[in-house]
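Hi Prof. W.,

I finally got the F-box domain-containing protein prediction working! I wasn't sure whether to trim anything, so I left the full sequence exactly as given:
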Amino acid sequence: MGFSADMISKKRVVLSSNEKTPVMVALGEEEEWRRRRPWEGLNPEILALIFVRIPAEEMVSCVPLVCRPWMEVVAGPYCWQEIDVQAWCRRRNDSHAVDLVVKKLIRRSKWSVQRLSAYRMGESGFFFAANCGKCLKVLEIPMSGITDQMISKHIKPLPNLGILDISNCLKITSKGIATFGTQCKSLIHLKRNMLPIEDSKPMDDSEAKAIADTMPKLQRIELCFGGFGDSSVSEILTKCKLLTHLDIQGSWNVELEGELEGVCEKLECFQSPWSNYSDEFPESESEGDDSEEMESESE
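And this is what came out:
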């Protein structure tokens, strides 16, 4: 099912153009109509709780065609407390189209969005997201073209933002991260995973230090394939005293020398730079078992 940007602005009604009620009601069968369709009289908030389980593109293109009450619910703010269009964004490599959809859905929510998840968002979409104020609790915008300048220009205090995902946002640097930390005082989960690489990046501790300096309440941090080293990990552990989960897989500049590895291992969940590589080669003991088994088979 397609999900065009202007699809959201269209309103289709399954009633005749000159009647306020369906033809069946005009024939004197109103009670029967209501009996067969009791869901029409449900509270809009209850309907919204059902509709939000439907993918956003289907909620926009299909649900409004059922009846007028459903159309009104979808057109109102109840269904758009959580906006997740990532599945649709993955099929579109067009930040302009993503921005149009995000802006229209945020308008529908009357700026009461609690969660916004979208890929490849641009400046205008970010402007709308940044204006959701105290309502916004989760902002997931990986692979977006947001820059440090856009963040400084548009971001406003987001006092209740707890989860931020800016993974693979290649135009954001330590300056943008520090701005997020300054304006979002309640962050407890940061995702800043970058594109996988096989070799180490040039050493760059600036982003990790910005996180440590401006986001002290973080409990979960994902920094896969970062360019930071041991000193940054140590600083994060020192300043983010509530930290329970740390994922630094693929961050090849980290060596975990001295007591650092032991401190990391005390966390509730720790993924080292080599977590996904430790099982590629069998231990010497298992190798011996295999050789013995081969010898017994040959006999």
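Confidence is low (pLDDT under 50) at residues 5-28, 281-291, 293-299. Does that look reasonable to you?

Thanks,
D.
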